[in-house]
Recover the amino acids of this structure.
């Protein structure tokens, strides 16, 4: 049996940020410790969730509450979480009944259920955390320090790297934070008005874009590397199928065709060499030819493509208008 995270940690911080009267991102009150809450959606994660629990209960700065949403798990996930909750009163299990079918929107629905289950109200930050991660003991303390140094920062998080992959090759995009590690200033999250449930996935990228639309900064903290304990989207099937699905996802998110093509070219070195990038591009093109419906709002689509045009212009050395 893996670790269930029963070791004791320090009490959660109880202080929070002060909100600015004009609704802009607030500045931390000097000398006070801001509280945060965590939401974790999980489904049949008995093999790995113990490591995530151990990482959280070992934090130098503990959450005020952590709601772990078991989304119809049929293995020992619920049992492992109950054992941790018995040792730490700030951990709460929310078991959900099994749901019919499978798509990436289920993660959003489970996360929103966890938010509704929160029983604390005094917190300055809210974080989403996947159930298959392992990270250092001062991870959340260092993330919060980024917010305290940057009053306009609305969303941030570390870099999740699959086990076995190089930790020296970091993402070029330093604005988008993976949903596995998204951490929000509370007023930023509340101004978003909820998450967008996209069946093809990619809700996390859209959440970052929406935060920037509201005038907040978003930041990938490249000095904080987190171990992702299993390959992304492993439930989608083999590596070629997963790469193809990522292309379908990018179409659903409204990515510009030229941007997507350049993006795929830049991924030729990822395993499997060349073929993975080709599968990614084929997935995108197949969605184009099928004219799959998009759920992304028109104003958000325009914003996403405008950002991508600017990135392409910088790449080409052209001054964007």
């Amino acid at each position: 049996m893996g670790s269930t995270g029963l070791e004791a940690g320090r009490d959660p911080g109880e202080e929070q940020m002060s909100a600015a009267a004009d609704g802009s991102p607030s500045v931390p009150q000097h000398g006070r410790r801001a509280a945060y809450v965590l939401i974790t959606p999980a489904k049949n994660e008995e093999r790995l969730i113990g490591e995530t629990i151990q990482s959280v209960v070992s934090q130098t700065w503990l959450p005020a509450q952590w709601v772990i949403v078991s989304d119809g798990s049929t293995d020992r996930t619920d049992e492992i979480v109950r054992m941790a909750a018995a040792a730490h009163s700030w951990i709460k299990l929310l078991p959900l009944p099994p749901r019919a079918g499978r798509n990436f929107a289920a993660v959003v629905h489970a996360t929103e259920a966890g938010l509704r289950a929160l029983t604390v109200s005094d917190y300055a930050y809210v974080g989403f955390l996947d159930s298959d991660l392992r990270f250092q003991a001062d991870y959340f303390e260092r993330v919060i320090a980024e917010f305290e140094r940057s009053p306009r920062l609305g969303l941030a998080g570390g870099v999740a790297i699959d086990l076995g992959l190089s930790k020296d090759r970091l993402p070029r995009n330093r604005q988008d934070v993976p949903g596995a590690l998204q951490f929000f200033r509370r007023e930023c999250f509340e101004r978003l008005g909820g998450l967008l449930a996209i069946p093809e996935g990619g809700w996390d990228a859209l959440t970052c874009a929406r935060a920037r639309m509201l005038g907040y900064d978003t930041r990938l903290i490249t000095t904080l590397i987190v171990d992702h304990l299993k390959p992304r989207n492993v439930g989608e099937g083999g590596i070629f199928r997963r790469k193809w699905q990522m292309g379908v996802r990018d179409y659903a998110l409204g990515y510009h065709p030229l941007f997507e093509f350049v993006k795929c070219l830049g991924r030729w070195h990822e395993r499997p060499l060349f073929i993975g990038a080709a599968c990614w591009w084929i997935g995108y093109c197949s969605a184009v030819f099928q004219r799959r419906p998009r759920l992304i709002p028109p104003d958000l689509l325009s914003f996403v493509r405008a950002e991508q045009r600017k990135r392409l212009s910088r790449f080409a050395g052209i001054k964007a208008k």
About this structure: The chain has two domains: 36-228, 238-316.
